[in-house]
Predict the structure of Asparaginase.
Amino acid sequence: MRADGDAAFAGLSGRGARRSASASKDLTDLPPVAVGALGGTIAMSAPRQGATGAVPSLDAEGLLDMVPRLRSVADFRVRNISATGSASLSFDDLLNALDFAKEQAESGVAGIVLAHGTDTLEESAYFLDLLWDRPEPIVFTGAMNTESSITQDGPQNIVDSVQTVLANSMRGMGVLVCLAGQVHLAHTVVKTNSTDLATFQSPDWGPVARIVEGNVHAAWRPAHRRMVLATPERPYKPYIPVVETGLGNEGRTLAALAGGDTTPDAIVLAASGAGHLSSSCADVAAGIVADGTPVVFATHTGSGSTFRRTYGYAGGEMVLIRKGLIPAGFLTARQSRILLGVLVANHADIAAVKRAFRHEGQW
Ligand code: ASP
């Protein structure tokens, strides 16, 4: 374990945290850090709880104002990118966030914090991870409880994310996700629970770091070499449906999608176990592949990898692979959709799609 100590953070935790006056520095001495606001619960309040519900109300400056003393830790450069629930974000909003991150990294910031709704955060983080080729960390954060909640977690998550950005040990690992005192790779993280504060977990690999008493304790660095792809042109609107399969699924949804008015750019199957379909669903999928649409199968179990050479029954993964379907390996169905979108935008042929999934899914 390695702890990146930063005395500036000692005792700085959450809303209204205090630091001694002697520790404050001239703004010009402070490390520059960029903060982009994209809405989400971290920026929401519900002034009349229960009446109207929580809606976005804080911009990037408002997020920093939740912890006033943060201003004496870093010199912040802010951008308001979006103010919405994260399911309403578009890929173009994320590309705007990427532009902001690039521009700021080129001007010398230590790293970039992006405050985002937790619902789609893992997808956005993985999307930018595929496009980020610089050593400065992009750290996604959010909150499970709003600004008006007694158990508000946003301020601590902002503090922890700034710490993460400033920690030397966090450089060069691509895009990270920081909530509830844990730091995860975008490549491994999943929202595992709809309400827990520590919802973001890496079920297969664990966090890369934990933050304790103002220190970022780095546990490991990925052996996996990051793949960086060309940034898609805007407007970027890939059409890649994810179909969950399971008991009694004969492939009717799949057939309807493939025969619909708009042909999907690719299809992801969130399949049972280590990547298994019913025999009839497998036949439908094979027909779609034969017509030229890439079909990827991931496990819908929530963790683990697809198999490649264990089951040879109809609908088993060996047969699917023989029919041209591509296993997602350790990638989730949601990650597979993101990766396929970028590959399609990069005009990848089927061999290149396979290579990319072998690399990213680690099979
Ligand atoms: N419930 C969400 C959140 O945690 C809302 C969103 O994702 O924007 O931020």
About this structure: Residues 91-106 form the longest helix (16 residues).
